[in-house]
Task: structure prediction
Amino acid sequence: MTSDPLASPQPLDGAQLAILNNRFEGVARKMANTLLRAGRSGVLNRARDFSACIVTADNLLLAAAESLPIHVLSGPDLMAASMRQFHPDLKRGDAFLHNSPYHGCSHPADHTILVPVMDDDGVHRFTVVAKAHQADIGNSIPTTYHGTASDVYEEGALIFPAVKVQQDYQTIDDIVRMCQMRIRVPEQWKGDFLAMLGAARIGEREILDLAAEIGWDQLDAFRERWFDYSEKSMIDAIAKLPSGCVSATSTHDPVPGTPAEGIVIKADVTVDAEGGRIVVDLLDNIDSLPCGLNLSEACARTSALIGVFNSIDHMVPKNAGAFRRVDVRLREGSVCGIPVHPASCSAATTNLADRVCAATQSALAQIADGVGMAEVGAGLSPASGVISGRDPRTGKKFINQLFLGATGGGATAHNDAWMTYLHAGNGGLCFIDSVELDELCQPILVESRRLLRDTEGPGRQRGAPSLEVAFGPVGCDVDVAFVSDGTINGPTGVRGGGTGGRSRQYLRKVDGTLVETDQVSVQRVKDGEVIISITCGGGGYGDPRDRDPAKVRHDVAEGWISPERAAEIYGMSA
Amino acid sequence: MRLACDTGGTFTDLIVEDESGQLGMYKASTTPADPVQGVIDALKLAADDEGVSLGDYLARADSFIHGTTHAINAVVTGRTARTALLTTQGHPDVLVLREGGRAEPFNFTIAYPEPYIPRALTYEVPERISADGKIVRPLDETALVATCAKLREAEVEAVAVALLWSVANDAHEQRVREILRQHLPAVPVTLSSELNPTIREFRRASSAAIDASLKPLMASYLGSLSRRLKDAGFMGRLLVLTSQGGMVDANEIAASPIRAINSGPSLAPIAGKYFGELTKPGADIVVADTGGTTYDVSLVRGGRIPLTRDAWIGQPFRGHLTGFPSVDVQSVGAGGGSIAHVDKGGLLRVGPQSAGSTPGPVCYARGGTEPTLTDACLALGYVDPDYFLGGKMWLDREAACQAIKDKVADPLGMSVEEAAAAIVTLATENMASAIADITVNQGIDPRHSVLIGGGGAAGLNSIFIARRMNIPRLVIPEVGAALSAAGALMSELAADYRAVEYMVTTNFDMARANKILRGLQRKGEAFLAETAGVSFAPQIELSLEARYEQQVWEIEVPLSFDHFSSEADIKKLAEAVHQSHERIFAFRDEGSAIEIIGWSARASCRVHEHIIGRMKPHAKEAERAGTRRVYFGGSGFCDAAVVPFSALAVDRIHNGPALIESPFSSVVADPGSVFWRTIDGSLVIDIAAQGADA
Result:
C-alpha cells in the first residue's frame, strides 16, 4: 500500500487531518441519511428533525455533520457521560435509550440512541449518537411540547436516563413493550426506534471499519490534532473581534406559569480578543418556573453557543476543541441553567432556548458592525404544532408534528435573513412539509400558505417576513397543540434594525368569525373550523435607511414591502 | 456513419463511428456565445482528418446524436424566457418556500436563494382539488381570463401551471391550458401534471417552471442546429440525449426541454456500464468522469443505470431542484483545476474553488497563480509537459513547482514533491468521498466493484482513488477521454412511463395491480412498435417505488415478473423490498406492511446492432517509449516506464510504476499495480498483483 499515507504511525500532517475529518463527518452523514429515509413519523421523514454525531470516549463532541445545532453542540457529550456513569461495564452490542433532560438530553421528546464503539479488546473508543424528535412520547396531553406542565409529573413524559435497550445486538423487548403501552400510535414510535437503532449501528460499523483500516492509535492522534486545530481556528476568529463586555435581554411572552411580564432572559457576554476567549454568563436569571419552558443544561449551554457561532467566522469547526474557548456560565435551578428534577423541560429546545440565543447574538452585535445577528422569530406556532385525532378515512388514530412552515430568520451583517429558518436552534435545517403530503397523511386541508407583505424586520439587511398558514380538519375534529411566542415580544433588530412581524393565532369558526386563541394551548378544531397561524418574522440588522436602494426597489417589485413602507422606513423617494 | 457530439463546458467532444465500425475522436473548443459553431468546428476536424469536405463528410452520416449543456447553462446564467407561474389560490409562495432545508447552519455568507420564478410573475388561480381528486372549489374561469390579460401586459414568454393535487385530477390544469391557448396562443405552456406526475407540489412546480422557461430558447437552439447541419450537408436523423440517459428526436426536446437538462453527463454511466461489464461481468460499476472543476460519479448495479428524483441544478438547498427523474450523477467540486491552499490553522485544502479553464492551472501559463491538482501532477512527473494534448500545448513545470513551493510546501514545512503528493492525496480523498456517498453510505461495498475512469485527466489519480476505496480494478476505456460522447453512441431510444397509484400489501388488489402493469406495458409496446424494423434488443423493464407503511421516501425495487398470479408473488415482492431496505438502512421490519406508490415501465431499444466500435490506430504514438522520473507519496522517487497506450499488446501483463500515454490522456500505474490491455481496447489496472487474473 505504497500510496496510503494514513497507514504509517507518523504525526498527522495537514492533508491527513483533513482526510480523517472528512471520514468522521461521512460516518455522521451516513447515519443521518438512514434516519431520514427509514423514519416513520413525519417529524423525521418529512421534516428531518433529527441529528447524528460522534463523541469521543472521554465524552467530547467530535463530529456532527449537518445536525440541528440545538441537538448537538452540547448534550451528546453529557449523555455519553451519563451512559458511562450508569454503565461502567460497557460491551460491544450494547445500545442505550436516553431522553432525560436531567442527565444531558435536550428535552424528553428527543429520544436518543447511544451506542458505545468498543475495540476488539473491549476498550470503549467512541460513542455514536442518533437523536430524533418523536411524534409522541406518552405525555399527559397529545403533544411533545407541554408548555404549561407545572412539573415532570404533570408533563407525563416517560424518562429514560441512558436505559439499556440492546445487549449483544438484541433488543430488550421489555422496554419496547413498556413504551408501546404508553406512547400514542405505538407502531409509529416503534418504526422510528428501529430507524434510530439502524442509524447508530451503521455509525458503529463504519467506525470499526475505519479503525481496522487506520488503527485506533491514529484515530486517537487525529482527535487530539483536530481539537487543537479547531481551538486555534476559534482563537483566530475571536481575535478578529474587539474586546468588550456587553449584555442584552430577550423576553418570552407571558404564558400560564410565568411572571406577568413574561420571562426576561439576560446574557452578559465578555469578549477577550487577546486571550482568545468568550464568556456567556447566564447566571443573572430567574429561578425555574412551574411550566414546561425551563431549559435543560444541554439546551442552556447549546443555545449560548449557537448565539456565539452565529456571530463569528463560520469556518470554525463546531466541536469540543472550539468549545474550549467559550465559557458558558450556568446556575443550578435557574430557568436557563441546570434544571433540578422535577422541573419540567418539555419545550426546552425552542422557546427559551431561542431567547438565550437571541440575547447572546444581539449582545455580540453591540461589539461591532459585522458581528452578531438579529433576533430570530421565536416559539412554536400552530403551523408547527402537534396534530392528533382519528382519521375518518382509515379509522386509525394519528399524532404528528406539522412543519407547515415557519420563517423567522434574523438578518446578519452581510446578508438578508435565511427565510425558512424555523427557529434559532434549528438554523433552517428542517424541511417544510409539502401541503400534498400533509393532506395525504392527516385528514386536513391547507387553505393557504403565504408570506405577508411589510412584516420583514427592516434593516440594512432585512429579517424574514411572517408566514400565514390556514388549515383545518376534513370530516373530523382534531387537536392542535402549540407553544407560541413572539405575539407580544416580536423579533427585535440590532444596530438600528427594526422588529420583524409578530406571531398571531386565530380560530375561524364555521360561521366565519375569527377568535384569537391562547398562545399555549391544545386547541380542539372542529370539522369546518380553520386555524390561522401567523408566524414570527425575523429582526433586521443595521439602519434600514442604509439599505442598498437597488435592493429596496427589488423588495417592492417582488411584493416583500409596499411602496409606502419603502418611503417611510427605508427612506426611498417614490 | 454515426456522429456523437457532446458539448461540455470547455471542450466539444466528437466521436465518429465510420461505416467499418472504426472510431475517431476529436476535440474542439466550446464556443459559449454560439455553441453550434463549436459543433461545426469539431465536425470540420473530423472531415479534415479524412481529407474530404464537410459537406461530403456529413452526407455519409445517418444520425447525429447530441448532448448539450445549453439548457443547464441558460438556467445557471439566467438567460431563460420571461416565465410566469400559475398556482392554486392561497399558495403563491411554493417556489419561495421550496421544501425548506439548508446546508451549513452557521454559514451566513450564503444568501437565501431567489425563487426560480419571481413573485411578481406568480399568479393565483381560484380553484382547489383535494387529496382524493375531488373538486373542492371549481375553477374560476372569469378570474383566469383576467389573469391572461395581466400575463400579456407583463410580456410573458412562457407559462408554467402547477396546481395542488393536479396529480390526482388534472381537469383544472387541462382547462387552464385551453384558456391560455385562447388568450395567449403564441405562449408555450407546461402543465405540472403532464410533465412530472408526482406528489409534492414544490417538485412539480419547480419542474414545470424550469421546463417552461427553457421552451423558447431550446426550440430556437435546436432549430438552428438542425438548419445549420442541414445547410452543411447533413441529411440524417438528429437525436438529443436526455437526463434519463436515452435519446429522443430533437423536436421532442423542444416540446419538453427539461429532459435535456443533464444531457451530456447522464451518458457517461451508459458508456461506463458497457466497459465495466466487459472487464468484470456481474460486478458493480462505479463510473467517474474527471473534469476541470467537477468530479461526476454514478453507480451501476445489476446492469441498471441509477435514476434520482433529487437532482439539483447547483448545490443542494442553494440551487434549483429539478424534481425531474434523471440519471443519478453526483458531482463534487474537485477536478484538475481545483486550487490548493493552506489555511491559517495549517490545514491543507483543495477545492472547491477552481482555476477553471481561464486562467487555468499555473502550468498553462495563462496567468494562473494558484497551484492546482494539475500543477501537482505535473510536479510529480505524472504528466509530460511536452506531450500534453499530444504536444499541442506546452506546460510550464517550473512555474507549477514554484507556486506549490510558495503556497503549500513552505507553509507546511515540506518539500515540493511531498506537498504535491499531499495535494493529490487530498483531491483523491474529496473524489473518493463522492464515491463513498454512492456506495458505502448506501450500504454497498466497493470491494466488489470496478472503477471506470472517464475524462482526459482521469488517469492521473484514479489508481489512488481505487486504492482509497478498496476498488480492486480500474478501467480506462480507449474512448475514456470522451466518455459521454461514447455513451451517446451506445444510448438507446427509450421511453419512461409511470403511474401514481397507491396500494398496500395488507390489502393487495392483484387484479388492479395487473391492470396497472398491463397498461404500462401496452404503452411501452406501442413505443417499441413505432421503432420496429430499425431497432434491436427491445425490452420493457418494470419497477415499483415502495416503502414501509408511514415512511415517505420510497426505494426503487425492480420487478422480476410482469404480473401477479398468486400470493407467492406478493411475498416475492415483499422480500425484495425487505432486502433493499436492509441493504440501504441496516434493518428490515417484517412486521410492517409495504406501500406501493409508483409503478414504472421503461421501454427501450438500440438503433444499431453492435454497440460501439474500436478506435482507429495512430502510428506515431508508438515511438514515445522510455522512462520518466516520478514521485509517489509514501515511497518517493522512482523511474517509471512510459508506455504508449496504442502500443500495448492485448493481455500482456505489465507492472507499475508506469505512465501509459496517449494524445488525450496520461494514466498513472503506481508501484504494486499491474496493468494490461483488453481485446476491446480498454486499459485495465489492478491495484494488487493477485487481482490480475481475477
